[in-house]
């Protein structure tokens, strides 16, 4: 895997991919790479946690392997499973050929060619790789405990095959939207970074980097509006992803700038709850555009 000599080089390589980082995140990424520790990223949805893993994979020239967590996820979904249809076909073919040795048949059925590698095992077997464990807060306590053991050893024991260990541990990024608290035992295993919503200047730079064809004035106005929206008591404050979506939607409408009427008409690109949209329409959007969108 490509070596990065310090936080500034990490920052530069990530910025080459279009992902802009501040000093704290650049240092956290560098330490995760240098120390071989998982990086636990926590914050509101849409602030760039998942995008960081994609940018790291691109910067390191390594494949991104993603495990999307959900309620009830278990080891067979995350680690490995057996290809039962192929095993059954093999068994029938062996029986048709007159093979009667039970021990031989069992050994053939649990051969690695019938092993289906899920994301965690795939990451252990792929060197180099970046493993994204997305939205770990959606999984349950038992899966957290299983994951803690796996990330401690970067190995897994398959009863039929023995212990499989990563020759080169993957770079691991875990994300959480904080829908529930993740246990301290898992957090202690990781380096931690809290993702704040960026300030105006950095968010504008992100929008301009991601959408270079959008007019400068439109990008400034949309960023100013989103910054204002976050200051209100919304059910779901918009993230950077929504800022980009809004600017892209307005650009698709042929707008080089936005007024209060157009902003109100396109709130569905940035706000996803009716109550939030109603609250936004009650704001003085024209005043925001006059003071910060110039």
UniProtKB/TrEMBL annotation:
GO terms for molecular function: ATP binding; ATP hydrolysis activity. Residues 35-210 form the AAA+ ATPase domain. Signal peptide: none annotated. PANTHER family: MAGNESIUM-CHELATASE SUBUNIT CHLD, MOXR FAMILY PROTEIN. This is AAA family ATPase. It comes from Streptomyces sp. R11. The lineage of its organism: Bacteria, Bacillati, Actinomycetota, Actinomycetes, Kitasatosporales.
